[in-house]
Each structure stands twice: as C-alpha cells, then as structure tokens.
Amino acid sequence: MKTSKVFAAAVAALTVASGILSSAAPVAADSVSDAKSAISANKSKSAQILAQIEAANSKVIALDAKVSAKNNEISAAQTKISDTQDNIDGLKTKIDKQQKEIAARKQVMAQQLVSLQKQAGSSVTGNVYVDFMLKSDNLSDMIARGVAVNKLNQANKDAMDDVKSAQAKMSDLKDQQEKALSTLESTKDKLESDKTSLVSLSKSAKKETKNLQDILKANKSLLGNLQDKFNKATAAADKAAADKKAAAAAAKSAKTVQLSASVSASGAAGGSYSSSGNTYPWGQCTWYAKQRSGWAGNGWGNGAQWGASAAAQGFTVNHTPAAGSLVVFGAGQMVGNWQADPAYGHVAYVESVSGDSITISQGGMGFGNPAGPNTQTISGAGNFSYVHPK
C-alpha cells in the first residue's frame, strides 16, 4: 500500500514539474542574434561614414587653401594692374608735356620767322631766310647772317628731333604698358573665374560633409535604438532562462521532497524508535530535525505527526515561531514554493525569525545534501505549528 502511495506521489510530482516547465515562455534566440548583427552592421556603417566625412573635410580644407592662394594671386595681379595703370598715367603726362614742348618750339620758330621777316623788310623772293640774306650790308654781314640762320635752323631741328624722339619713346612705353595691363587684366579675370569654380567646389564639399554628418547622427540614433532593443532582448532571454531554471529546480524539489517524505514514512514505520540516539532513517527530514535540535524524541512518527507526539510528551506546541524550535508542516501543506507530502507532511528546524518570515534548515532525500543543512526562508510563519524545547 505504501509502495503504491510512493509511486503516486512521484507521478504527481512529475506532472507538476511538467506543467511548470511548459509554462515558461522562451525568448527567441534570433531576437538577440538579430540585434547583435544589426548593431555590428550599424557600427560598420558609422565607421564608413566617418571615413567619408574625414575625406570630405580634407577636400574642403584643400579647396579652401586653393581659394586662399587664388585670392593672393588676384591681389598680386591687382597690385601689378594698379602699378601699370600708374605707369601709363605717368607716360600720358609725359607725352602731353612733350606735345606741349613741340607746340612751344613751333611757336618759338614762328616768332623767329616773324623777327627775321621784320628785319628783311618787304619780301623779294617770298622766302624769309633768303630775303634776310639779301638784305645784308656787305659780304661779311651776309656770311654772318648765313651762319646765324644755319645755327638757328640746326638748333630748332635738334630741339624738334629730341622732343619727337622722346615723344616716340614715351608712346612706345605707353603701348607696352597698355599691353601689359591688358594681359594682367586677362590674368586677373582667369584667376577670378578659377576662384569662383573653387568656391563652388568648396560649397559642394561642405554640403556633402553636412549631409554625411546628418546621416551619421541618424545612424547613431538608430544604433541607440538597436542597443536598447538588444539590452531588452538579452534581459528577456536571461529572465526566461532564470525562470526556466527556477521552475525546473522547484519541480525537482517538489518531486524529491515528496518522494523522500514517502520513503521517510515507510522507513519510520519499520524502524526502531528508542529513547536514545537518533533512530530515524538517515537522510530523512525526521533524521535531520532530531540531529539538528538534539532534544527531539525518537518515535514521533512522520513529520506531520511530530506536533501531536511532542505535545503528548509534555513539549509546548503552538503557532508562535521561535529560533531553536521545530516547525511542523501538515500533510500537503506548502513549504514556501513546494508542497509537503500529502500523506506524511514535513518537519524542519527554525534557525531564525524575522517578522512574518522564518529561516529553516532541513534534510531529505530530495535535496542536494540529504543529511542537511538545506536552508530556506518562507513567509506566513503563523500558519505553521512549532514544537518548543523544554
């Protein structure tokens, strides 16, 4: 009869464990894996964007340097243009002066002719110089007049030649300066055109940099969202694994404790209950309670029977927990997160009390250490019976 009860308890425990394990909702591993892949891809993309931004910035810097150089060249060309224009203006002034000198020289020559005409009197030949010669008083006077006329003519000719030569040179210089000015202006126009192109390229490069920075910002935001999803997925997976492990442990504990309680009852029924030593079967909850307390009696039966047995021997039994007392769990009563055997109950030693909670140590074949101690803290302390030492 007891064997059938033990088997039934085992089946019940396995059924409970199966129900607990199947109720744990698993988190798909793909969600964590996908989040990792997405984060990795996003970081790779961010690195590529940063490289592109660096290249674009280098391009902007190079273009700005070229624009600056063009500005210097334009400034130098403008200085040369100004200097050349000043030279041209100076040459114009000199040419004007030479023209005035030519006009003055012509005026002097005209006055000389008038003077000679006055001296020659009425014209005979129609040539002032010839008439001037014919009016000589004698040969010596004629020779003297001839020398004077020749000197005068040569002086006027030399003066006119010098002035005209200077004027020609000035004109040539002016032409050269005007050609140089035209060349400089063309050079300046070309520099201005080059600068305009460079400024346009620089603006395009800066715009490209701004677009890349906007993309990087959006990518960083996406990375933050992906990281948040990854953290949540990881936390959910960890929680699911922990819940599954806890459910498995609870199922195993319920199964083994129920089986140990059954075996304990079976052993207790056939064991020797003397008044000395520990006569309970080793590894059972009753054996540990006797061993830990040192004052519990032999022959008190199954765990659920200890309250009545102790009271019959004069021990105080009530619902007041106290450190050093024994706590008795009735048949099928919950021991925290697992259930005592529905036929034989359970007994444990109270290590400490904190408000409505008690910390107990216990033994049993369902625990990793059958001989104990196996510690557990449970609430609802007033729901249990306690056997106090004398």
TrEMBL record:
Keywords: Coiled coil, Signal
Domain Peptidase C51 stretches: 260-388
PROSITE patterns xrefs: CHAP
InterPro entries: CHAP_dom (IPR007921), Papain-like_cys_pep_sf (IPR038765), PcsB-like (IPR009148), PcsB_CC (IPR057309)
Gene3D superfamilies to which the protein is assigned, alphabetical: 6.10.250.3150, endopeptidase domain like (from Nostoc punctiforme)
Signal sequence annotation: 1-28
Domain of life: Bacteria
Protein name in the entry: CHAP domain-containing protein
Coiled-coil region: 67-101, 149-194
